[in-house]
């Protein structure tokens, strides 16, 4: 028996972090590893945001912050939600947290009772299922088909809902697939949700700005279900601020108050300096994000073009975020030159690391065991080099 709680024993270590660790170990031995396993912009935080953080220190922003965030930051978030998403919220609806990850955890812990079912659209971001388990909810994975760009349809959702369904969770643009729900997709999903009064929606829009199709839709825009939608967003991806740890939710005030209550007992308000930086980020609008998105778009095209030249990879075209997520099941059962049989996507990811010295993450942790994820948030030359190596390595499998 273990001294540790059942709660922690049923939780998995983050697979993305585990793979990054392996690639760092190889790099430490002097191997030139190209790391495409991380979900992180390779850009520095824009200078005007850094300047605001420096000013915050000089201006004395060193005290505890209000638990749901500085009022001026929450107001700026309301302004952003109006400007970008045509959503009307007040400060009482906004809770700022230590990254969108905490926002997600707050929301799940606020809504889910032990035994409640949470429908997680798969492929999903790795932490969703683990957070639901932490809340003792029952994870119901609903897998979107590759033919539909991995997007779950309204009909599939309808079929998965039971009287115990409390919450559905997804990201759009999606990590890991890059799929983006259109307004029509979400209208159909909202219709289903409207028919089931006990069902809430946790809509993770952290990749909102990294969108190559140009039309970001929020399910909270469907007013008949708005009170049951929790929109999650943050600064990590759009503003290249992963290390600063600022995310937020917009929700009905009762749900927002519940999230605030949990946060008040676990972390308190997020870092004062990071909040001042986030405020400056929002005041600067989308210009800095747009510049980065141009690069992500170009790299997506570059990677897709190279991936299409590699026999055996089936790579849908991502509409947003900074990943490609090819189906690699055609390699299962093949043998590497060192005699290793590739049984599954994990074996293939390890082979690619060992042979091509490129790190990626296999799809199991995303609920997609036939796929592997490559980040495209790396310099163009690195991506070119990586996919040249991958092509060469995969060609040696027989
Ligand atoms: N949601 C998704 C879909 C993500 O990919 C990530 C980060 O990888 C997060 C949330 C967490 O973001 P944050 O850095 O704000 O905690």
From TrEMBL:
Residues 32-386 form the Aminotransferase class I/classII large domain. Keywords: Aminotransferase, Pyridoxal phosphate, Transferase. The keyword Transferase applies. Pfam families: Aminotran_1_2 (PF00155). SUPFAM superfamilies: PLP-dependent transferases (SSF53383). Its cofactor is pyridoxal 5'-phosphate. It is an enzyme of class 2 (transferase). The keyword Transferase applies. GO terms for biological process: amino acid metabolic process. Its EC number is 2.6.1.-. One of its GO terms (molecular function) is pyridoxal phosphate binding. InterPro entries: Aminotransferase_I/II_large, AspAT/PAT-like, NHTrfase_class1_PyrdxlP-BS, PyrdxlP-dep_Trfase, PyrdxlP-dep_Trfase_major, PyrdxlP-dep_Trfase_small. Gene3D superfamilies: Aspartate Aminotransferase, domain 1 (3.90.1150.10), Type I PLP-dependent aspartate aminotransferase-like (Major domain) (3.40.640.10). Belongs to the class-I pyridoxal-phosphate-dependent aminotransferase family. This is Aminotransferase. It comes from Hymenobacter telluris.
């Amino acid at each position: 028996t273990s001294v540790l709680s059942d709660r922690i024993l049923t939780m998995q270590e983050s697979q993305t972090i585990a793979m990054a660790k392996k690639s760092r170990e190889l790099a430490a031995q002097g191997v030139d590893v190209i790391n495409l396993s991380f979900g992180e912009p390779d850009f520095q935080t824009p200078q005007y945001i850094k300047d605001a953080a420096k000013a915050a220190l000089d201006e004395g922003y060193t005290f505890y912050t209000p638990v749901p965030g500085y009022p001026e930051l929450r107001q700026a978030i309301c302004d952003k939600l109006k400007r970008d998403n045509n959503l009307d919220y007040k400060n009482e609806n906004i809770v700022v947290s230590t990254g969108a990850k905490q926002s997600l955890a707050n929301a799940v812990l606020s809504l889910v009772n032990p035994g409640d079912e949470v429908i997680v659209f798969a492929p999903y971001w790795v932490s969703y299922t683990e957070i639901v388990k932490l809340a003792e909810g029952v994870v119901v994975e609903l897998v979107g088909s590759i033919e539909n760009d991995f997007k779950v349809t309204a009909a599939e959702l309808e079929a998965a809902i039971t009287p115990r369904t409390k919450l559905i969770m997804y990201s759009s643009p999606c990590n890991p697939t890059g799929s983006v729900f259109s307004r029509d997709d979400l209208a159909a999903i909202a219709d289903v949700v409207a028919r089931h009064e006990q069902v809430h929606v946790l809509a993770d829009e952290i990749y909102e700005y990294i969108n190559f199709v140009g039309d970001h839709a929020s399910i909270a825009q469907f007013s008949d279900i708005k009170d049951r939608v929790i929109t999650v967003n943050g600064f990590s991806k759009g503003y290249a601020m992963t290390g600063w740890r600022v995310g937020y939710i917009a929700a009905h005030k009762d749900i927002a108050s519940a999230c605030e209550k949990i946060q008040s007992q676990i972390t308190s308000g997020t870092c004062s300096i990071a909040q001042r930086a986030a405020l400056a980020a929002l005041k600067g609008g989308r210009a800095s994000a747009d510049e980065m998105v141009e690069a992500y778009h170009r790299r997506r095209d570059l990677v897709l073009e190279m991936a299409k030249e590699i026999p055996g990879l089936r790579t849908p075209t991502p509409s947003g975020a900074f990943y490609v997520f090819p189906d690699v099941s055609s390699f299962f059962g093949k043998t590497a030159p060192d005699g290793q049989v590739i049984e599954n996507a994990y074996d293939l990811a390890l082979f690619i690391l060992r042979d091509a010295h490129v790190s990626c993450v296999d799809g199991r942790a995303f609920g997609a065991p036939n796929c592997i994820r490559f980040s495209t948030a790396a310099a163009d030359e690195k991506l070119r080099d990586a996919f040249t190596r991958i092509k060469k390595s995969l060609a040696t499998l027989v």
